[in-house]
Amino acid sequence: MQFNLSQATSKTADILVVDDTAENIRFLAAMLIQQGYQVRKALNGKMALTAAQAAPPNLILLDVNMPDLDGFEVCKQLKADEKTAMVPVIFLSALDEVTDKVKAFQVGAIDFITKPFQFEDVLVRIQTHLKIQELQSQLQIKNSQVQQALLDLKQMQAQLIRKEKMLGLEQLVAGVCHELNNPIGFIVGNLNPAHEHIERLLQLINLYQQEYPEPSPAVQTLLEETDLDFVAADLQNIIRSMRAGAKRVSSIVLALRIFSRLGESDIKAIDLHEGLDSTVLLLGHRLAGKAGMPAIEVKRVYNEIPLVTCYVGELNQVFLNLLNNAIDALEQKFGSPTASNQRLDQTPTIWIRTELSHAQTVTLRIQDNGIGIPESAKARLFEPFFTTKPVGQGTGLGLATSYQIVVQKHNGHLSYDSTPNEGTEFSMTIPITFAEKL
């Protein structure tokens, strides 16, 4: 709420004089103009309201006794209008009862001068209230600057924490990938030779059984205890399980490398679907069912989109934050003690959709049918360190960080739509070609 308050000197202020007596207006206007003020005149309440709304003055001198609308009603309507609510009002009236003065202050006046008055008294009060208003305006500006500085500080702190976490994550991923690569490579490389050796040994045993159908009692006893037919069949299953396990570990290592983009440049053209898939794979332990919480289904609707040039590691961090939040929302709804009261026809689900939203932008949507976002939290959702999660379960950096990465770093757009107890959808739009903000 701002009005035309002079920042230089109160003598340039615009004053609206409202009085149904023309002589009073002429006298006040002449004296104020002589003092260097700009003066507008209104002979009744309706004219005063129209003039104030058209161009809010710096101060209003208002008579009480006027036809149609008295000064009290005019002041009340001025204070009810956001455009004129902050304009200071001084009553000038022949009324001298205490109740009249009390009513004047109740409807929003800042001063009450009784007629007949000395112009010097009016002038001093005008100067005083204009100065107060000027100082209040300066204080509001300072407050705004402090609030902005505090927000900038929070964002900088969040960025430092995020960078520290990302550095730690990259170091951890690098170490894990290095430690796993060699043993997994060893296992995978030896599975085929091991399988061939086992097959040869089984063939040899079969051949011995054919050539020497009557084994010694000791050999016969061992064969019966071993159940050779079962061992031969089970060895095949063991080899298949080992192959599947090794393949799973290899895919997780690959997902880790894709997620962190180890050894790659910060900015490059990537396939967003590859990053999304790797993130979903890394979250497999949270998506799997467990005691009191059914498995979460992930439905991917990928449309054809071009490669997107971006900060790869940081964009993958956004995917991780949004998917983790979706899982948290689903666990609150379907894994809480009151989950039995939820509709039984629902399966906890996350939908991931991509599309070419424009010739130069792509859109990613992550939707869940979880607990939703409470109305009280929506205004502060992207604020650093604000979280709706219980103490110890959230830092309040996930969405703030995601907003900074998408909006501030990639010139994109991040928004959401949520209905309590029905679910939430986050929508992220980023340019296909990266152009860093200046």
Description:
- By secondary structure, this protein is of the alpha/beta class.
- Among the domains are: 10-117, Rossmann fold, CATH 3.40.50.2300; 264-438, 2-Layer Sandwich (Heat Shock Protein 90), CATH 3.30.565.10.
- Helix content is 53%, strand content 16%.
- The chain has helices spanning 22-34, 45-54, 71-80, 98-106, 119-211, 217-226, 228-260, 272-282, 284-287, 312-334, 375-378, 398-409; strands at 14-18, 38-42, 59-63, 89-93, 111-114, 267-270, 297-302, 308-311, 349-358, 361-368, 413-419, 423-431.
- It has a five-stranded parallel sheet with strand order 2-1-3-4-5, with helices on both faces. A five-stranded mixed sheet has the order 7-9-10-12-11.
- The longest helix is centred in the middle third of the chain and has 93 residues, at 119-211.
H and E order: EHEHEHEHEHHHEHHEEHEEHHEE
Shape: rod-shaped
Estimated share of beta-strand residues: 15-25%
CATH topology of the domain at 264-438: Heat Shock Protein 90
Rg, nearest Å: 38 Å
Average predicted local confidence, pLDDT = 81
**Class of the domain at 264-438, according to the CATH hierarchy?**
Alpha Beta
The number of helical elements comes to: 12
How many strands in all?
12
User: Which CATH architecture of the domain at 264-438 would you pick?
Assistant: 2-Layer Sandwich
Q: Main sheet?
A: 5 strands, parallel
What is the CATH homologous superfamily assignment of the domain at 264-438?
Histidine kinase-like ATPase, C-terminal domain
Uncertain stretches: 1-10
Counting copies of identical and different chains, the oligomeric state is: single chain
Helix content: 40-55%
Distance N to C terminus: 31 Å
**Major β-sheet strand ordering:** 2-1-3-4-5
Overall structural class, as computed from helix and strand content, comes to alpha/beta
